[in-house]
Amino acid sequence: MSDEQARRVQAQFGANASAYVTSPLHAAGDDLDRLLAWGAARRADRVLDVATGGGHTALAFAGIVRRVVAYDLTEPMLAAARAHARTRGAASIEFVAGDADALPFRDESFDVVTCRTAAHHFADVAAAVRQIHRVLRPGGSLLLQDILGHDDADANAFILEVEKRRDPSHVRSYRAAQWNAFLRAAGLTVIEDSLIWKLREWSEWTGRMRMSAEARRDLEDFVRRAPERCRAAFEFRLAEDAVVSFNDRQILIRADRD
Ligand SMILES: C[S@@+](CC[C@H](N)C(=O)[O-])C[C@H]1O[C@@H](n2cnc3c(N)ncnc32)[C@H](O)[C@@H]1O
After folding, report:
1. Per-residue pLDDT reduced to its tens digit, 5-26
2. Rounded Cα distance, 89 and 35, in Å
3. Model's pTM, two decimal places?
4. Which residue among 95, 174, 175, 233 is least enclosed by CB atoms within 10 Å?
């Protein structure tokens, strides 16, 4: 990853680490349940959680496997996740700092790699997927969840601008076919995938990134001025003087190493 993108990620998440630890949308959800069910069916023993954030996915997997490594680029995020895991009595999680595109682990050392709500921050997703393939044992699974790119170019450009204004470390999200291509190129085969919608309450979503009042007003103006069909693609709800919510489409993928 470029130093500039790493600085952006660390600035955004370092300053807001505790908000991610306490975020109910990250602590639980249908998406986490699905990843966990896939993981349980794989009977995994060693799990790597890439871009662990507040550590919620790592914590969930610590309940069903012997060894979990929680990995993240942002040290204050890891510190917050570690403190949270301790309060939950999860002593088996090891916390390691680093970049998704340079995993400091031996080849074939994990049964499952998870990566939830994070790949849209990676400067080079293809490189991260190659690294994940390298550390997975043959037959092991990547369990991935992320925001799904929109097939309509205008709707996609609209939501990308919204995301980047709220969080400058957002790079982009990918469509299902693009994910399939990254995974295939690295030697991973999609076994199962599904789509879910996640409701974003606007004040919580913008508040978590501590946007200034001015930046938030500008973003709300941008949303209001956007073509109706772009807003409709994400089911934006507007009140007279505020944006209320929108719906994020998320993709879940289980892809196995060939
Ligand atoms: C939204 S949080 C992840 C949420 C978490 N996976 C969960 O299940 O609650 C995004 C995290 O990605 C991390 N991140 C972003 N780019 C990264 C990279 N290139 N390598 C490792 N971690 C990265 C950030 O530091 C941040 O902690």
Report:
1. 899 999 988 888 888 888 888 8
2. 22
3. 0.96
4. 175
Query: What pLDDT band is residue 243 in, cutting at 50, 70 and 90?
Result: very high
Task: Give me the residue label for tokens 């501590």.
Answer: 210
The position carrying tokens 């914590």 is 59
For residue 232, the model assigns a pLDDT of 97
Rounded distance, CA 254 to CA 258, Å?
Answer: 13
d(CA 85, CA 76): 14
By DSSP bridging, strand 110-116 and strand 136-147 are: parallel
CA of 53 to the centre of ligand 1 (A): 5
Residue with the nearest Cα to atom 15 of ligand 1?
A: 121
The mean of the pLDDT values for the chain is: 95
**Could you tell me which residues are beta bridge partners of residue 198?**
248
- Paired tokens of 49: 């959680």
Is a pLDDT exceeding 80 seen at residue 254? Answer: yes
- Cα 241 to averaged position of ligand 1 atoms, centre (Å): 33
Q: How far apart are CA 172 and CA 141, in angstroms?
A: 24
Query: How far apart are the CA of 257 and the centre of ligand 1, in A?
Result: 22
Confidence of residue 241 (pLDDT cuts 50, 70, 90): confident
Nearest to 26 by CA among 56, 60, 51, 58: 56
Here the contacts of 183-187 (C-beta below 8 Å, separation 24 or greater) are: 183/129, 183/142, 183/253, 183/255, 185/126, 185/129, 186/126, 186/129, 186/130, 186/132, 186/133, 187/133, 187/257, 187/258
- Give the pair of three-digit tokens for residue 227: 């073509």
Ligand 1 atom 27, closest CA: 53
Q: Quote the longest CA-to-CA distance of the chain.
A: 55
